[in-house]
Structure formats: structure tokens, C-alpha cells
Amino acid sequence: MLGRLDPRFFPSVFGPAGDAPLDPEAARARLSDLAAAMGAASVEAAAEGFVAVAVEQMAQAVRRISTERGFDPRQHALTAFGGAAGQVACQTAEALGVTEVLCPKYGSVLSAWGIGEAEVAALRQAGLERPLGPEGLAAASTLLDQTEAEARQALADQGAEAGQVRRTLRLRYDGADAELPVETTDLAAAKAAFEQAHHRLFGFVEPDRTILIAAVEAEAVSIPPLQGRDRRREATSGWGSHAQDPASRPGPRPPHPGR
Fold first, then answer.
1. Domain chopping of the chain, boundaries
2. CB-based contacts of 235: which residues, under 8 Å, 6+ apart?
3. Alpha helix locations (H) across 39-133?
4. Measuring CA to CA, which of 112, 184, 198, 234 is 20 to 30 A from 206?
5. CATH number for the domain whose boundaries are 120-222
6. What pLDDT was estimated at residue 135?
7. How far does CA 106 lie from the centroid of its chain?
8. Cβ of 209: how many Cβ atoms within 10 Å?
9. pLDDT at residue 132 in the model
10. pLDDT at position 233, please?
11. DSSP state string for 231-243
12. Which residues in the chain come in under a pLDDT of 50?
């Protein structure tokens, strides 16, 4: 409806018998009914509305793994993958204020590749509510041993072997609600990591306020199904990039999924 897909380049695998090509007119007829029910000015306007909703949903998903964790997506690039990514990647980037979009050569199959590469994980968490200090860290370590064993068992129950276990402290200021994850480490490093994360997320720290270990978390992660650097390098060697603004190239560029 919006001219973003060319039916000529799609195989004839549609319809009741699975042997028909894409039918733009059938799509228009069904969308016309929806457009009328919506009170849209045209079929194209209705289609644009659906795309706008999808774009905002994807942008919100990226915000949940970036802004809400104290990272500004504007300082990163957006990686487009999945068969439909090319249709919405630039709009999603605009919604996030991102100025660079990476388009892998084989982006349309990265979702399928990702499923094959995906890790199986089991996460277990336990509340503690102890001040961050030598005694609190000792209690956290004991509780983490227990939660790690539970996470490993949960992973084994799924038929997977644990490749690593991430042990995390969930810290917050006494009287506050926001918990921030910090890797288990020594007292000084844990406090510094918490204050850095708190300042990044909220813009301030309170040096004299008690920090609580609200909970501990152990996540057992399986060994990925696909092994070896060479296979991963081969799968991503064809990556290219498309920049909305070539003059603007942010520094760090961890991939954010766009679908």
C-alpha cells in the first residue's frame, strides 16, 4: 500500500494452496474496510497509521534497554535486522534521535541466525535488604551461592549446560524504590559502580545516604549452540552501514535491535 514492497521480488508461496504471488489488490480491499471503520482519509493514511504505531512500539522497546538503564540511544547506532527492518529502521532511528543506522548485508536473516545463536538462560533472585558493607557482602555471597545453584539446576532441567553464571547485586538507596544492578565485587568497587550508575540515570548521588543490598541475582547462561569465532565472523563479515547523517558518527556503537 505504501510502495515499500515490490511484489515482483516475492516468491509465489501465498494463498490457500501456498502457490500464489502477493496480491496488492486483495490487501487494498481488506485495508479499505479497516480504513473506513477507522475514519481514515484513505487506505494509505490507515497504513501509515499502522506503521507509526509499530515504529513507536519498537522505539519504546529500545528505550527500555537504553534510556531506562541510563544510556542515551542518541550516542549509539541502530542496527537493522529482520525481514521488515528496512521499511522502518530510519523512522525508528528518528523517533530515538539516533543519527546512524547500520544495515547488515544479510540483515534479513539475522533474526533466524540469532535464534540459532541464542543463549538459554535461567535467572534466580532472592531478597536480602542489608546495608552495603562487609557483613552485607558476606550475606550476599552466601545467598548468591544458593541462587546460583538454583539457576544452574533450572538450566539443567531445560537440557542446557551452563557456560557462565552472572552474579549481581541489586542496590538502592535506603528509602528509595529504584534498584540498580551492580556486578559482585569488593565494597569500594560496588559502591563506586552504584553511584556511577545512579548519577548516569538520575543525575545525582547522595554520598551520606545508606546503600542497601535489596536483592541478589544469579543468571546461568548456556553455551551458545553455534561455536567458534570463525563462524560468527563469517556470519557478520558482510555488514555494511547506512548513515542518515554521514557527518555525525557517534563513538560507541553497541547494536540495538530494530525490527
1. 7-114+235-258, 120-222
2. 106, 113
3. 43-64, 85-96, 110-117
4. 184
5. 3.30.1490
6. 96
7. 19
8. 11
9. 97
10. 52
11. HHHHHHTTB--EE
12. 228-232, 235-236, 238-259
